Design the sequence.
């Protein structure tokens, strides 16, 4: 079984990790693809709505999943397909979080999985302008023609891992971990949790404008900041750095970007201070520089080393193209 593993990719209906609406699986054994599986998913009832941002990325709508299987059925198919082997994904913390959160929403159990991240592996293997999935895929000779389709992205992750194993001269994930310095992650088992009976909610499109700018700001202000992940890649460009976001990102809201920064080993912050290493400048309501931007420039003028970057630059450091 150590020579067999499964590449996986989820698409989500909205910014909740558990709102899974599609999954792609590619099984690899002995260095070659031996099986594939993909399906749309009806998102769990608590998060069964599609946001404009996510649909713009992957193209999946509420109508597309109206008759798709629910997560309980897909969970069973996924576990059977993987057959106890390790999972592989590009930016694996996101996909492992989707697995865990979908089960939390539905009260379903999940066995433990070891996993490897091809984003972290790419940084240890190739010197590239960035390590986004299309960039790394092109470098290893695999073209992603339908990026943000779960089946296409899982296929790309599989080919990246196969190419990296060849580059490092290894046949198994444990051996690759030893040779490359890539630490394998562990998704611990999730126990079944009884849920209160609920009336199934219809899968729907999100009503834009239901939360105004002030509402989003208030929600972000009250949201707790996540701690840096102990499983983060020390070679990542945000590892150990304090990162503040000013303005509204187009790709995701602040609680989601804070989570991604923490998964990358960074320390998200709500304000610019003398400890700030990176300020991400996004859209502001007045179009000019925000107070955080001006404060960062003031610290920089006094000699503080602080990177002031744009949203695309942040996504590049996170290794993602969008949500």
Sequence:
């Amino acid at each position: 079984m150590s020579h067999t593993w499964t590449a996986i990719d989820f698409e989500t209906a909205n910014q909740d990790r558990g709102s899974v609406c599609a999954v792609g699986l590619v099984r690899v054994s002995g260095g070659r693809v031996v099986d594939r599986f993909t399906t749309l998913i009806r998102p769990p009832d608590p998060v069964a709505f599609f946001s404009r941002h996510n649909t713009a990325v992957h193209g999946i709508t509420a109508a597309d999943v109206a008759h798709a299987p629910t997560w309980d059925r897909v969970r069973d198919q996924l576990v059977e397909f993987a057959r106890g082997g390790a999972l592989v994904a590009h930016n694996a913390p996101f996909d492992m979080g989707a697995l865990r959160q979908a089960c939390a929403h539905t009260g379903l159990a999940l066995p433990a999985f070891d996993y490897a991240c091809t984003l972290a592996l790419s940084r240890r293997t190739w010197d590239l302008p960035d390590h986004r999935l299309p960039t790394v895929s092109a470098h290893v000779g695999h073209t992603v023609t339908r990026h943000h389709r779960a089946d296409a992205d899982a296929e790309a992750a599989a080919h990246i891992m196969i190419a990296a194993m060849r580059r490092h001269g290894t046949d198994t994930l444990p051996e690759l971990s030893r040779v490359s310095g890539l630490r394998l992650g562990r998704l611990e088992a999730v126990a079944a949790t009884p849920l209160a009976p609920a009336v199934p909610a219809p899968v729907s499109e999100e009503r834009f404008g239901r939360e105004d700018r002030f509402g989003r700001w208030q929600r972000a202000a009250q949201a707790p900041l996540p701690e840096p992940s102990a499983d983060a890649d020390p070679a990542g460009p945000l590892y150990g750095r304090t990162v503040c976001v000013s303005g509204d990102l187009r790709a995701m809201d602040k609680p989601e970007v804070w989570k991604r920064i923490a998964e990358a080993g960074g320390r998200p912050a709500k304000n610019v201070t003398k400890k700030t290493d990176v300020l991400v400048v996004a859209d502001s309501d007045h179009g000019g520089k925000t107070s955080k931007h001006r404060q960062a420039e003031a610290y920089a003028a006094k000699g503080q080393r602080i990177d002031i970057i744009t949203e695309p630059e942040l996504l590049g450091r996170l290794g993602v193209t969008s949500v």
